[in-house]
Amino acid sequence: MTDGAAVGAGKGRWVVESLYEKEGFTCAFRADKVLYEEETGQQHLVIFENGLFGRMMALDGITQVTERDEFIYHEMMTHVPILAHGAVKRVLIIGGGDGGILREVIRHKGVEHVTMVEIDPAVTDFCKAQLPQISAGAFDDPRLDLVFADGAKFVEEAGGSYDVVIVDSTDPIGPGEVLFREEFYRAARARLTPGGVIVTQNGVPFMQGDELAATMEKFRRLFKVASCYLATIPTYVGGPMAMGWGTDDEALKAVPVEELERRYAAAGLTTRYYTPEVHKAAFALPRYVQDRIEP
Questions:
Q1: Spacing of C-alpha 172 from chain mean position
Q2: Residue 127 to residues 28, 117, 137, 149, Cα–Cα distance (Å)
């Protein structure tokens, strides 16, 4: 298996998480049952069952989503920008082929239109078949415009504007690398409405500090507010994960908890990780993270 060799002994095959291999660290998830495996033409994809995390998907040896803890990532990538903004009508999702971000976006009834751009149709097809609980029928929502294309080219060439842009990318390896370039961020910024916000997947700062620092350096050249917030997701090992935050509206980061509570209640949401208090606290960064994002 590409980037996911069997290791160790005992029941089942072990799928190795290879993201930090060059740095001298790996971990492995036991594949009690491999459900699907293929070279899609874009990347190597495997979906398997693990006794602790349920169904899991890895791309090029890097864990993307698991049945048990996906709600943390998807809720925090989605509800933080939408509730901070407070009046979101149009959302652009780049990546997110499993449908988890889409699922959370369409729970906001005030959202009138969602464009989702995924580079690899095989990822979406396989997730619909093997991980249907992630999207939970979201792909059938009439507000969705699903586009299979390169996300970087889409923001450069397509029209339209959006209140929130969510970049649910892989790490800057393979097809996802282009989504970490300044040219992409600049084109995405041009798609934002006044007061809009872009949120990006920026890895685990303890393990991928250079990646976060590089994005924040680019954001500082493009946005008045260039920062990040954190969420702890068990399968993304090495500490809390950073979500990049770029906007020209300084007020979005400072919405009071009381107002977030009002917006949360008005949206009628039921969440498993996100709360208005967690939203506010997520922007309180440890010193080692601050040191990586400050000039």
A1: 13
A2: 21, 15, 11, 17
pLDDT at 267: 96
Instruction: Name beta bridge partners: 63.
Output: 58
**pLDDT value of residue 1:** 35
The pTM for the full model equals 0.91
Residues 6+ positions from 212 with CB-CB distance below 8 Å: 202, 203, 205, 228, 242, 244, 289, 292, 293
> Is 168 designated active site?
yes
Please enumerate in sequence order all residues whose Cβ is within 8 A of that of 31, keeping only pairs 6 or more positions apart, or say none: 12, 13, 14, 15, 46, 48, 49, 50
Can you give the pLDDT at residue 11? 59
Active-site hit among 168, 171, 248, 291: 168
What's the token pair of residue 75? 């809720």
- Domains, the chain, with CATH or none: 13-66 (2.30.140.10), 70-293 (3.40.50.150)
For strands 225-231 and 241-247, give the pairing: antiparallel
Distance separating alpha carbons of residues 244 and 195, to the nearest angstrom: 16
| Residues 6+ positions from 174 with CB-CB distance below 8 Å | 42, 43, 59, 60
Average pLDDT by stretches of 10, the chain with 295 residues: 40 82 90 87 84 91 91 98 98 95 98 95 87 95 96 90 92 66 93 97 93 94 97 94 97 97 97 98 97 89
